[in-house]
Design a protein that fits this description.
This protein has one helix and eight strands. By secondary structure, the chain is mostly beta strands. The chain has one domain: Roll (3-methyladenine DNA Glycosylase, Chain A), CATH 3.10.300. Strands 1, 2, 3, 4, 5, 6, 7 and 8 form an eight-stranded antiparallel β-sheet that branches. 34% of the residues are buried.
Length: 172
């Protein structure tokens, strides 16, 4: 949360935004793609921590995940929303919009997050405290819905969906 997602678009241009919403998954719970077993399509989720796991959701759009924990154990963090300065605040306010905006597809699957020149994550600019984050249950899933493994930056207008009672911040 709060780190920068950066994609090199050509030799001199890049798109850069702040990660403002994430969800976590672990093979120990039913909503994880690695819950039942390793397959050809989910094998990168069981791979080296610090790599990308990209999958196609509903056959329509790609989703960007970072593999976490340890090898041979499926766990990852889905990048749900990114704020891109000087752009429409809703441009990347959902997992499919993130990958569409950044031009991310299955070709980035298994790529190391830090050791490449095309798509990476860099440090955040400031320290985040508990008051900056909202922790809530995940959305858009039918199993293990009540696990509170979704986080978003409270002050961001780019979050895909806020919890009930949490109003979108006003423009500054």
């Amino acid at each position: 949360m709060g780190c920068h997602l950066i994609k090199q678009t050509n030799e001199k241009d890049k798109i850069k935004g702040i990660i403002v919403e994430t969800e976590a998954y672990s093979q120990e719970e039913e909503a994880c793609h690695g819950y039942r077993k390793i397959t050809e399509s989910n094998k990168s989720l069981f791979g080296k921590p610090g790599t990308f796991y990209i999958y196609k959701s509903y056959g329509i759009h790609h989703c960007l995940n970072i593999v976490t924990d340890k090898e041979s154990f499926a766990s990852g963090v889905l990048i749900r929303a990114v704020f891109i300065p000087k752009q429409n605040e809703r441009l990347a306010s959902g997992p499919g919009l993130v990958t569409k905006t950044f031009g991310i597809d299955i070709s980035f699957n298994s790529l190391e997050v830090l050791n490449n020149n095309s798509l990476w994550i860099s440090q955040r600019d400031s320290i985040l405290g508990e008051k900056d984050l909202i922790q809530t249950s995940r959305i858009g899933i039918s199993k293990a819905k009540n696990i509170k493994w979704r986080w978003y930056l409270k002050n961001s207008r780019s979050v895909s969906k806020r919890i009930k009672g949490d109003r979108t911040p006003k423009f500054k």
